[in-house]
Amino acid sequence: xxxTDDLTRADAAAADPAAPPQAAEEVVVLDYGGQYSQxxxxxxxxxxxxxxxxxxHVGAAEVARRRPRGLILSxxxxxxxxxxxxxxxxxxxxxxxxxxGICYGMQLLTRELGGEVQGAEVGEFGRSQLTVKEPGxxxxxxxxEQTCWMSHRDTVFAPPPGFxxxxxxxxxxxxxxxxxxxxxYGIQFHPEVVHTPYGQDILxxxxxxxxxxxxxxxxxxxxxxxxxxxxxxVGDGRVICGLSGGVDSSVAALLVHxxxxxxxxxxxxxxxxxxxxxxxxxxxxxxxxxxxxxxAVDAEDRFLTKLxxxxxxxxxxxxxxxxxxxxxEEEAAKLVGETGGGARFLVQGTLYxxxxxxxxxxxxxxxxxxxxxxxxxxxLEFELVEPLxxxxxxxxxxxxxxxxxxxxLVWRQPFPGPGLAIRVVGGEATKQRLDTLxxxxxILQDEIRRAGLYRELWQSFCVLPDVRTVGVQGDERTxxxxxxxxxxxxxxxxxxxxxxxxxxxxxxxxxxxxxxxREVNRVVLDITSKPPGTIEWE
Length: 538
Ligand code: XMP
What we know:
Blueprint (H helix, E strand, L loop, with lengths): L2 H13 L10 E6 L5 H10 L3 E6 L4 H6 L4 E4 L25 E4 L1 H9 L3 E17 L12 E14 L5 E5 L7 E4 L4 E4 L11 H12 L11 H13 L3 E6 L3 H14 L3 E7 L7 H12 L4 E5 L1 H8 L5 H26 L5 E4 L4 H6 L25 E3 L7 H10 L4 H4 L13 E2 L5 H20 L8 E7 L2 E6 L2 E14 L7 E2 L4 H14 L3 E6 L13
Parallel strand pairs: 1-2, 1-3, 3-4, 4-9, 10-11, 10-13, 11-12, 13-14, 15-16, 18-20
Antiparallel strand pairs: 5-6, 5-7, 7-8, 8-9, 16-18, 17-18, 18-19
Bound molecules: xanthosine-5'-monophosphate.
The site of xanthosine-5'-monophosphate has 11 residues, from loops.
């Protein structure tokens, strides 16, 4: 990329804090609605090339503005023949950059350029055997027979004139095609999913050999870029960050602190609904270790008072959300008062997936802000600082690790804003019940970590129903609480499967809970997936 290009991007970035990072090389993925579109961008980044996912309708000018090294057209659910199917803007093919169409993307290219796409009688879903007849440039050096992942009904029967058909599968006469001359490539299968073992090699070939990328990008390389942007954005203004203990707000806070030091103050509202020792860990990491100015508000009594007599899940959420805002606003007002007002900025741990879901990555104007600080109202008069808005979750973890964030915070499982209150189910979240739940949860976490399973699980936690059952311990009849173990695997919390924890581990957990927690005399395991269940019980 030329110096002029760099200047253009740098100028754009300085003017707009929401502009994409200044990666030396970028590949744009156009999203035609496929379920794996985000994954394509993630895989490209894993190959060392910055990638953005843009809606398919952004148009060639918007793509050109980014000066990408290449363009990938994603899969999508439509048939290219459906009247309202997303179309290919032919101007995209005149940008002078290589194009790779995946699944629907390949069908669009084929149709646009005069090849033959037809609705097949039989679809091809799941694993398929790919036979490479002519490796060409895209599949060079890869095995002639390989497994790939397919998900399509329309099928390419003939490539456009001037193109070479490279491979086929049982249901796809043309499963890969290319025209090296025109710089246009297509594959019917999904290289981005793990079920295509050579998928990452194919993407690498496209990025390196076809697009000429040097592959030097890494999540860590955004650190310096973000530090410069944060400085430009806030100048000498005061900045506030609500810390929740989760990885997003933690990494966002650390990055901002790196950039502007003590102009940042973090506010940690301990609502008394956290896990055991979690508040102390946050305080130890930020105040003691990183020396970040931190206001820790012990608001347990306030929250418990608000939760008195509240049993209905949504009422609990509302009570907690409202109180959170009140406490946060009070602390923010104190800070602003202390510093004599002036510019006020609020750090939010908005991630790239939030940006995409809110309508695309093209600029602040089109994007609604997500409420990552446990639900702050829209009328808080802060300008947002969002240093993670170009990153996916796993990249945020990588940045956190690079900034020295403790492993425990980097890898923390998601934890709901209303905390343990929505895990004391069917009744009021009293101090006593919360403490019982907290103790049970601590045992579960301890054993799961000791078994080396913590990172494999999306979430693992306990639920305390308002139910007591009869038991016998020693020679005594007991009447104690039931603890539910809930552990799930998931990619995104939209769906989840109950985790098959080893029996021996379950036995160890149950026996510790019953022996160590007086109030508990029974432990059960939740074996419901999502759907039909939700992950949380309330
Ligand atoms: P469900 O229970 O709907 O949860 O399957 C999906 C994911 O969302 C989390 N969750 C919440 N997070 N505030 C939050 O910040 C909430 O009120 C809330 N309710 C559920 C849940 O832990 C899971 O990760």
